[in-house]
Amino acid sequence: MQQTPEKLEQYMQSCRAKSNVPEAMLRVVERVALWQWEHPVDPVSVPAVELTDADRHRQGVPLLPRAVFPVPEDGAARVESLMEALADSPLGETVSAMMGRVQRGELDLSAAVRAALLGDEAFFAPYAAQFPDAPRLVPFAVGSAVTPWAEAVARAALGEKDLTTPETVWPHGHCPVCGALPVVGDLRGKEGHRIHTCSFCHTPYRAPRLQCPFCLETAQGQLGFVDSPDLPGFRLLTCSTCRMYIKVTDFREMDRTSWPAMDDLESMTLDLAAMEQGWRRPTLSAWGF
Ligand SMILES: [Zn+2]
Ligand SMILES: [Zn+2]
Predict the structure, then answer these.
(1) Which ligand is nearest to the CA of 199?
(2) Structurally, how many domains does the chain consist of?
(3) SS3 label, residue 41
(4) ∠ CA 58-64-69 to the nearest 5 degrees?
(5) Distance from the CA of 221 to the center of ligand 2, in angstroms?
């Protein structure tokens, strides 16, 4: 995440003012974002991996499918470090219960890191019952600890390549690097180029202006939106074919820049409104809830 603690503070203030996300959750997110900022991963440290050849990539095969992402050597240590950072957060008690399970050998953090890389939700399912106060704590903590690594692997795979330029419109929906679904999007430039951000490796990539990224529908009559006067610059782009939506921000006329994970948090009320209208979001929020 190329953001600063100062910017984080501004965003948190804005979230407190606008979103209906509980204060305890905001404090946890703030702590995690700070930890991620303090524990970056240098793409140079990522082991070399074989990438999909150019022909197959053009046809939609991800450059480095998530299933073959390298595993960080210090994965378990990273999760422990993040748990320590959360020890005096509102999740503190549940985090120390989680640490107890790790110490007793009941939760293998290395296996959890591999599961987070694979997106293996079944691995995490039993922990929901073990931590009823915070059923998503384990996948959240492990996923958050793995995020800087996933971002670095994607950057190493891409090298100098920029997937947000006009020549790189990617019509396949999923992330061109890892194959995961997009979590949010934003409009950029005079013409409003539509850039999606991957839910897993956070790579930004250019998507077609009018297309559902989930079922690839392009018929204009099927594509609509949900917005709210309380949240200028935010829109949920809906698709009547698959009943799903993606959140897209347009801050071009506003004095603000996009920080996808924080923008997502700030506009959670829009997600609730859409869900009440029967729209579904196929990914978790940028923060795993
Ligand atoms: Zn990705
Ligand atoms: Zn669709």
Answers:
(1) 1
(2) 2
(3) coil
(4) 170
(5) 12
143 plus 196 within the same structural domain: no
Locate 245 and state its tokens.
């939506």
Where does a domain end: 107, 137, 158? 158
| CATH at 260 | 3.90.1670.10
Give the model's pLDDT for residue 87: 95
Query: For position 2, what pLDDT does the model report?
Result: 57
Same domain, 209 and 270: yes
Ligand 2 centroid – CA 226 distance (Å): 15
pLDDT in tens, 65-99: 999 999 999 999 999 999 999 999 999 999 999 99
- Specify the pLDDT at position 163: 97
| Cβ contact 178:201 at 8 Å | yes
Residues 64 and 149 in one domain: yes
Ligand 2 geometric centre to CA of 237 (Å):
10
**Ligand 2 centroid vs 116 CA: distance in angstroms?**
26
Q: Are residues 147 and 171 in the same domain?
A: no
Q: Is residue 286 part of a domain?
A: no
Q: Could you tell me the pTM of the whole model?
A: 0.94
Low-confidence ranges of the chain (pLDDT < 70): 1-2
Q: What is the DSSP string of 82-115?
A: HHHHTTTSTTHHHHHHHHHHHHTTSS-HHHHHHH
In a domain, 25, yes or no: no
| Torsion sign, CA atoms 229, 230, 236, 240 | negative
Strand order in the sheet with 223-226: 204-207, 193-198, 182-188, 244-249, 234-239, 223-226
CB under 5 Å of ion ligand 2: residues: 212, 214-215, 217, 239, 241-242
Residue 241's domain comprises 166-276
* CA–CA separation, 244 and 271 (whole Å): 11
The pLDDT value given to residue 200: 96
